Amino acid sequence: MAVKLDGLSPKELQTLITQAQSRMESARTEHIQGVKAKIDALLKTEGLQLSEVYAGRGGKRGRRAGAGIPKYRNPADPSQTWTGHGKKPAWFQQALKKSGVTAESLLITRAATKKPAVKKAIKKGTAK
Fold first, then answer.
1. Separation CA 75–CA 98 (nearest Å)
2. What CA–CA distance (Å, rounded) separates 72 from 75?
3. How many angstroms from the chain centroid is the CA of residue 73?
């Protein structure tokens, strides 16, 4: 498919570029869906799971320790938390815009959830 670009205006060229990029994205999506379908069919035929073929991918071994533990809590809605990893949630960004609010002030305090330290009784030695 040859397109003659010589006689096109800058506006027409931009329109052509936009249309080509849009088609490129949809072609990529279609390609990925086709590959997924082939993989799923092959796995089904062989009686395997993807996790068996690619051990360690998508499983628990690849996760960082503590990645799922919430670190910050929304003071306006305590059900909303954030681990501190990945993109900052909208509530976190909005809270930081308020006067006097810092990231440290949104931290979840662990003191209430930790068990109190148990004091060990010190045995005094008997003098000999």
1. 12
2. 9
3. 17
Question: Collapsing DSSP states into helix, strand and coil, what is residue 19?
Answer: helix
Residues 6+ apart with CB under 8 A from 71: 81, 82, 83, 84, 107, 108
Task: Decide if 81 contacts 69 (C-beta within 8 A).
Answer: no
Give the N- to C-terminal CA distance of the chain in Å, as an integer.
102
Mean pLDDT within 50-54? 82
pLDDT at 22: 94
Instruction: List beta partners, residue 73.
Output: 81
Residue 10 three-state SS: helix
Q: Is 103 helix (H, G, I), strand (E, B) or coil?
A: coil
In this predicted structure, the answer to whether residue 118 has a pLDDT above a threshold of 70 is no
Whole-prediction pTM value?
A: 0.40
